[in-house]
Design a protein that fits this description.
Blueprint: H1 28-50, H2 52-55, E1 61-62, H3 65-73, E2 77-83, E3 86-98, E4 104-113, H4 122-128, E5 132-136, H5 144-170, E6 184-186, H6 202-216, H7 218-222, E7 231-235, H8 242-252, E8 257-261, H9 272-286, E9 290-295, H10 313-327, E10 335-341, H11 349-352, E11 359-362, H12 368-378, H13 390-395, H14 402-418, H15 426-438, H16 449-468, E12 475-479, E13 489-492, H17 503-513, H18 515-524, H19 532-547, H20 581-608, H21 610-623, E14 625-627, H22 628-635, H23 647-662
Parallel strand pairs: 1-4, 2-5, 7-10, 7-11, 8-9, 9-10
Antiparallel strand pairs: 2-3, 3-4, 6-8, 12-13, 12-14
């Protein structure tokens, strides 16, 4: 049930203050007078729809033209007003009409329309009945209300567009400068970070110091015929300080420093990124000597034309322009390009050739001494008790990046503040490390006594095997307290950083992974799902031993695996396997043989130390968590991995294991 350490968290984006107001991006002043415009528009539409301007408030009943002639013939019409083909009439006595829904309506004013082909008999009929006739001349003026009603939506759009334009200009995003660079310019006066704020990374700082010296005193290099690299690529895992080194260069160098991220070049319109690259280099050349820093270069520097779907037009045009600016037909004088990425395997080969990014600087995970320096820097503003040993913390955090170490001390400070203490104690740092490694402590899961006993023996199996075998890392802590996705964990912390793993260490490591399953079989005669993570990790390690490291006798010193992992969709389809089906079968058999032998070693070791396993399981059920020193006191072994063995005895034990695994 031991759990691998989670990957460090990704880099976050800067917070942006959300826009406020009725319309995003519009200030409150515009909103105050925009609301009356909407009200005016609604009133005008209502008036135009119901014809209040034309009717003058007089209610009239519209009837058919034939009914109108009948009213005239009956002598019930007193006066009419004719305008074009519209006829309005006043009746001498109310008339009755039945509407379409069957209701009866009486009216004294009527409205009708003359036929478009005319009626020559209407005027004589009106004269015969003594009807007063008023003829209105046709309206030759402009129809202002329809014009205004048609122009109001256009005016509203213009106002909104003008408001957005003013807002974008206020934020420095001119609509007419869409293709201009968004890089921020820094100088030594505006950037306070220096190399003194960067712990470790001595090789990277030495390489970057040459760039700074060239910018400050270029004649010293020119006299000997040396040319500073045109491009410097910082490569390393996330959180190792690549961007921090770039900020330190900006603080150390007296030259202008232009900082931009790769995503700032990308837009939905093809060609905008290339335009911004041109604008950036033109601005840098005007300020030469200058430095351009592109963070997350892989967002625009990916391999061109890869994958099933081909390339991305905007990204590829941006990359082509960057290649041309760095080393194209026109010389690039006085501008040094720095970039950072944690995915150098997906970068285009043309970007990495000499003349562009001449120098690649590896920014690796810090060593134990570098971790100590990083912890001291991040502990400057944190009150620590004297019991907090930063050297011990550095020794117990192998594989931590600088960002992880900063997060570790921050979590410790949060735990101290949660308990309302003024200073950070050692327990806070230990709890913070457990939180970072294994996740948050889970509450009461309602585990039964039988399940707790199973967890205790499972973790006890890992611990006893780790304590008994000669080539394992020291035990730091064992717990059955659920954290994250793990129900328990056995923590082993090396006494030093390891860069080379010998055969003896790997086979002992596999046996420790199999210790939990072996304890389940030995004590409870069962197998549970709790060994899932152990089996996956052991299988992965065994396959690397066979495929990549060539440490087995049967297959010999040959690397059958491939380091070129597919990074684009469909790239793996056209790549065949590097070995035959018969070899693949042998690989599977060798992996299974190694894992079975590791399980047998773990099972045999637990049989030899069964009493120690029972005592450790009882202690875990009682106390739930034990330190490494407490573990060795309980199981009765020396507090190291069999230090009583001499060098010859360790070599003999390793040779015996090697012979059994190789099948000799």
């Amino acid at each position: 049930m031991s759990q691998n350490r989670p990957n460090p968290p990704g880099r976050g984006t800067g917070d942006r203050t959300p826009s406020r107001g009725p319309i995003p991006g519009m200030n409150m002043g515009c909103a105050r007078w925009l609301l009356p415009m909407w009200i005016l528009l609604a009133v005008a539409a209502f008036a135009w729809t119901f014809g209040l301007f034309d009717r003058g408030g007089v209610e009239a009943q519209e009837i058919a033209y034939s009914e109108f002639r009948e009213q005239v013939a009956d002598g019930n019409v007193e006066a009419v007003r004719i305008e074009n083909q519209r006829i309005e009439g006043e009746l001498r006595s109310p008339a009755t009409v039945v509407t379409e829904d069957g209701t009866t309506v009486q009216y004294t004013n009527l409205v009708t329309h003359a036929p478009p082909f005319g009626d020559d008999t209407l005027l004589p009929l009106l004269e015969e009945q003594g009807v007063t006739v008023r003829v209105e001349p046709p309206d030759t003026g402009l129809a202002w209300w329809p014009i205004l009603l048609n122009l109001l939506p256009l005016a509203l759009l213009l106002v909104v567009g003008y408001t957005f334009l003013r807002r974008s200009q206020a934020q420095g995003q001119n609509l007419f400068s869409f293709g201009e660079s968004r890089a921020k310019r820094y100088t030594g006066a505006t950037q306070a970070t220096t190399f003194g704020d960067v712990a470790g990374a001595y090789g990277a700082k030495e390489e970057l110091q040459e760039v700074i010296d060239f910018l400050k005193n270029p004649t010293r290099f020119e006299r000997i015929g040396a040319q500073v690299p045109k491009g410097v690529l910082l490569v390393g895992p996330p959180g190792t300080g690549k961007t921090l080194l770039a900020r330190a260069v900006a603080g150390e160098a007296g030259a202008p420093f232009f900082s931009i991220t790769g995503s700032d070049f990308m837009e939905m319109f093809v060609g905008v990124g290339a335009s911004r690259v041109r604008n950036l280099f033109e601005e840098a050349k005007r300020s030469a000597p200058a430095i351009i820093f592109i963070d997350e270069l892989d967002s625009i520097g990916r391999r061109r034309g890869a994958g099933l779907g081909g390339g991305h037009d905007e990204r590829e045009q941006t990359l082509n322009q960057l290649l041309s600016e760095m080393d194209g037909f026109e010389p690039n004088i006085g501008v040094i390009v720095m970039a950072a990425t944690n995915r150098p395997d997906i970068l285009d080969s043309a970007l990495l050739r000499p003349g562009r990014f001449d120098r690649q600087i590896a920014v690796d995970l810090p060593t134990m001494g570098e971790r100590l320096e990083i912890l001291k820097i991040h502990a400057r503003n944190k009150p620590l008790e004297e019991e907090v040993d930063l050297e011990r913390v550095a020794r117990g955090t192998p594989g931590f990046s600088g960002a992880d170490l900063a997060n570790l001390l921050n979590e410790a400070a949060l735990l101290a503040a949660r308990d309302r203490r003024e200073r950070i104690v050692a327990a806070d740092v230990d709890d913070a490390r457990d939180k970072v490694l294994m996740g948050l402590q889970r509450g009461d899961l309602g585990l039964t006594q039988e399940e707790l006993q199973l967890l205790a023996y499972h973790e006890g199996g890992h611990t006893v095997v780790a304590a008994a075998l000669p080539h394992t890392d020291p035990i730091h802590k064992v717990t059955i307290v659920p954290r994250g996705h793990a129900m328990g964990a056995t923590q082993q912390l090396p006494t030093r950083d390891r860069y080379v793993y010998p055969w003896e260490y790997m086979i002992d490591r596999l046996a420790v992974m199999m210790g939990g399953r072996a304890a389940e079989r030995l004590v409870l005669n069962t197998a549970t799902s709790g060994a899932e993570g152990d089996l996956k990790g052991a299988t992965q390690l065994a396959r690397k031993m066979v495929l990549d490291w060539g440490v087995t006798e049967s297959l010999g010193p040959v690397a059958l695996g491939s380091n070129d992992s597919p990074v684009f969709l469909g790239e793996e389809i056209g790549r065949g396997r590097d070995y035959s089906d018969e070899t693949a079968r042998e690989v599977d058999e060798e992996v299974r043989h190694i894992l079975e032998e590791a399980y047998r070693r773990a099972y045999t070791t637990l049989e030899e130390h069964r009493e120690a396993l029972d005592r450790l399981a009882e202690a875990l059920l009682e106390r739930e968590e034990l330190t490494g020193e407490e573990v060795f006191d309980i199981i009765g072994l020396p507090p190291r991995s069999r230090p009583s063995l001499t060098g010859e005895e360790q070599d003999a034990a390793a040779e015996d294991v090697r012979s059994r695994v190789a099948g000799e």
